[in-house]
Specification:
Helix content is 32%, strand content 23%. The protein contains five helices and five strands. A hairpin with a 4-residue loop joins strand 3 and strand 4. Helix 1 packs across helix 2.
Length: 171
């Protein structure tokens, strides 16, 4: 039995579409709900105008797809291109994956991942990456989909204040 055998079939009552500029209010609502779900709601500083500029301006910094059920948004996947210099290849990285509470467990998250995977294949990417916080109970779903947790990699970040401090020390 393969790992994918345990994954639910995609919800057929859900449609997935490319996000548009006018979706930025919905995107921000879902980003906030995801952060709240993960217990880090206070970290969200994004604004609708910034999302509109960065996702739908002349040089988009992210892409997004939205899952809808009966015309109502119920899920979001935000992603961007990632380049591996070791492998000399691109992959897509899902930076945010969210499903509204009413739609959890129905295959919406799987459908979003599947659609991003199809985009990655269409763009001839070597793979698909996704980061998730330890506390997220959906981590087991990633295992069932065939994602492999990389124990040898640690995720580090430098926030805006840390970036300022680093640059100040170099002066």
């Amino acid at each position: 039995m393969t790992a994918l055998a345990a994954v639910p079939l995609p919800n057929t009552t859900v449609t997935v579409r490319t996000a548009r500029s006018e979706d930025c209010d919905t995107i921000l609502r879902m980003i906030r709900a995801l952060a709240q779900y993960q217990g880090i709601g206070n970290r969200v500083t994004a604004k609708v105008e910034t999302l509109r500029r960065d996702g739908f301006g002349p040089q988009p910094r992210f892409e997004a797809i939205i899952a809808e059920s009966h015309g109502r948004p119920v899920g979001l996947a935000m992603f961007q291109m990632n380049y591996s210099i070791w492998e000399a290849s691109c992959s897509l990285q899902i930076t945010d994956l969210f499903v509204d509470e009413v739609a959890r467990g129905t295959g919406v998250g799987f459908r979003l991942v599947l659609d991003v995977a199809a985009i990655a294949r269409e763009r001839e990417c070597a793979g698909l990456q996704l980061n998730m916080v330890h506390a997220n109970p959906s981590r087991t779903s990633l295992d069932r989909m065939g994602f492999v947790h990389q124990d040898d990699l640690l995720h580090y970040t430098l926030d805006a204040k840390g970036l300022d401090r680093l640059l100040e020390t170099a002066q």
